[in-house]
Each structure stands twice: as structure tokens, then as C-alpha cells.
Amino acid sequence: MSQFLRLVLCSALLCAVSFGQKSAKTVEIIPPTGYHAPELQDSPELRTLLNNAVGEVLNSYPAGGFKSEEIAATLIDLRDPKNLRWADFRGDQPIYPASVVKLFYLAALEQQLQDGKVKSTPELMRGVKDMIVDSSNEATQYILDVLTDTSSGAELPQTDFEKWQYKRNRVNRYYSSMGFTKINVNQKTFCEDAYGIEQQSRNYKGQNRNMLTTNATARLLAEIALGRAVNAERSAQMMELLKRDPFKESKDPDNQSTGFTGKMLIDKKITDAKLWSKAGWTSKSRHDTAYVETADGLKFVLVIFTENHASDREPIPSIAGKIIDGFRMR
Fold first, then answer.
1. What's this model's pTM, rounded to 2 decimal places?
2. Nearest by Cα to 268 from 247, 282, 242
3. Three-state SS annotation for the chain
4. What digits encode the pLDDT tens for the residues 290-323?
5. CATH of region 35-93+241-330
6. What are the pLDDT digits (tens) for 155-181?
7. Side by side, which strands form the sheet with 274-281?
8. What residues contact 236, with CB distance under 8 A and at least 6 apart?
9. Domain ranges (residues) in the chain
10. Which of 116, 118, 151, 325 is the most buried (most CB within 10 A)?
11. Is there a contact between 73 and 188 (Cβ–Cβ < 8 Å)?
């Protein structure tokens, strides 16, 4: 072998090793330096309020018409950022989140943008907006590709698939490093179904589908609302995308602004309230993740997931209404 060829091969090997050494730092999603999970104080008062609100709605149905195992909810009081009180109803139960998972992809992407590991382009910002504002599944597929450096396609041999799946789990590793538990955020959202490697990633029978708890979801939205997700500037940008106007006329009963928690504000004519939210719904599920501020000083995150009642548009706003009434009575 010539000396020149040896030099070329050695240089290539050094480059490969160097790339391997820095790849984790350059592509992994890393929490901000000094990040600490929010301290949430369990509140018996809020637990009674939430349990009563959920119970009243369930009891309004015929016996067995709406089972307790078909709903989960988490409530966080944000009026005192230094003393966050919270309560949940089955809040640690993993549930298929539908489009609510897009909130987790948004926050992860903002972290990558902040760290300079992803470059902001007009096309990327178009995708982010469509993912959150319009809840576009196609946009979400694009954003997850960007986050994880993976793409859809044909099934792969096991060894190649494991490498692909490790990359796809990048968002999971990010949230795990911040103490989020019982969640899985590594799948694209589809209008119909997944095919090829995407179905392979789900383990064909859905065993690896996205899963969230209302506790984890409420925590993330609370961090965004408090300006603690990535940083204050990035949190404000996320809040702008999540901002809803429930009093803007819409003929779509599943509009994120008017068909979920926003419906409560409409029904109660609370025109001076502010709403930020991310809804999700399928043929079997109906969920909402909402942050509400009212003119009389209420500030709370309320996350409600319902299953097997996708076409029932009353439970979520009904529970939200009872929460507001309960707050105001105290």
C-alpha cells in the first residue's frame, strides 16, 4: 500500500472516530444547563375539586355510560409560581394522546433551535405553525424527521432497524432526562395509518404507539406557561402558537379554540378570559390540554383525556366549567 493511500485511510478513520465522539453532543436533545423539574405540591383541596368535577360529569350519564377508567385529568394552579399546587384523577395512566403529542415535539424542537443543533428556516417555521395551529399530521411527520434524523420508508433488517429506532427515540431520551415518566413520544401522527418502517416501529400491533399521561402533559404546559421550557423567550414563542380565540366564529365542532375547553368559556360567556391549548382527537379519543387565565386572577392548567367518547363534546368543557366555578367559590 502506498504511503499516500495510508494517509488517506488514516485521515478517513480519524474523521469517522471524531464524528462518533462528538455525535452525541451535536445531535442529542439536552435540557438547559441547571434545569430542575418544577416542584408540585399535592393539594387535597384541588384533589377534592377535581374529583368532584369529574364525578359529577360521570354521574350525569346512565349507569356504565361513562366509566371512570375512560377518563384522566390533571389540574395545576399557577397563581403562585413559587408554590405550584396540583391534583390528578388517574393522571399517571398512559393513554394514546392523538395530536396532544405535538406539544412535546414543539418543545423539543425549540430546545434544538436554541442550542443551534437545528437551523431555523421559513419552511421549518411553516411546519411548526401548521403542526400546532392547524394540527397538521403531515407537518408533524416533517418535524419529527428533523428532530430525530429519521424518515419513513421500507421495513429494515433488524440490525439496521435498531439503529434507526435508537435515533427515533431521541425525543424520549430528552424527556426522560428531565424526569418525565410513563410516556412514549417517538411516533408520527397519521390521518389514516402507518406503513413500512413506521409500522415496524410500532411493533406492528401498536405496542410502541405514542403514550402520554395527563400528569406529564400538564407539567409540560405549565413549564411553557411559566416561561421555564427551554427559556423565557422560547416559551413565549410556544405560547403564541398555542393561543386560541374561543370567540372567533367557527363552524367546525372540533376546532381547537371552540370545541374543547374553549367551549366552556363560550357557554359561560367569559369573554375576558385567555386560552392557550392543544387538543387531540381520533375516532376513539377526545383530549384537551389547556391553560386558562381569567380577569379575576385565575391561572390554571387543566388536561383532560377521554376514551371511547370521541363524539361526545360535553365532558371536557363541563369539567372545565366546574373547575372554574369551584375556584371562584373558594
1. 0.92
2. 247
3. CCHHHHHHHHHHHHHHHHHHHHHHHHHCCCCCCCCCCCCEEECHHHHHHHHHHHHHHHHCCCCCCCCHHHEEEEEEECCCCCCEEEEEECCCCCECCHHHHHHHHHHHHHHHHHCCCCCCCHHHHHHHHHHHCCCCHHHHHHHHHHHHCCCCCCCCCHHHHHHHHHHHCHHHHHHHHCCCCCCECCCCCCCCCCCCHHHHHCCCCCCCCCEECHHHHHHHHHHHHCCCCCCHHHHHHHHHHHEECCCCCCCCCCCCCCCCHHHHHHHCCCCCCEEEEEEEECCCEEEEEEEEECCCCCEEEEEEEEECCCCCCCHHHHHHHHHHHHHHCC
4. 999 999 999 999 999 999 999 999 999 999 999 9
5. 3.30.450
6. 999 999 999 999 999 999 999 999 999
7. 40-42, 84-89, 71-77, 299-307, 285-293, 274-281, 243-244
8. 227
9. 35-93+241-330, 96-212
10. 118
11. no
Q: Which three cell numbers stand for residue 273?
A: 378570559
Cell triple for residue 168?
427515533
Q: Which residue, chain included where needed, has cell 405514542?
A: 210
Question: Cell numbers at residue 123, please?
Answer: 419552511
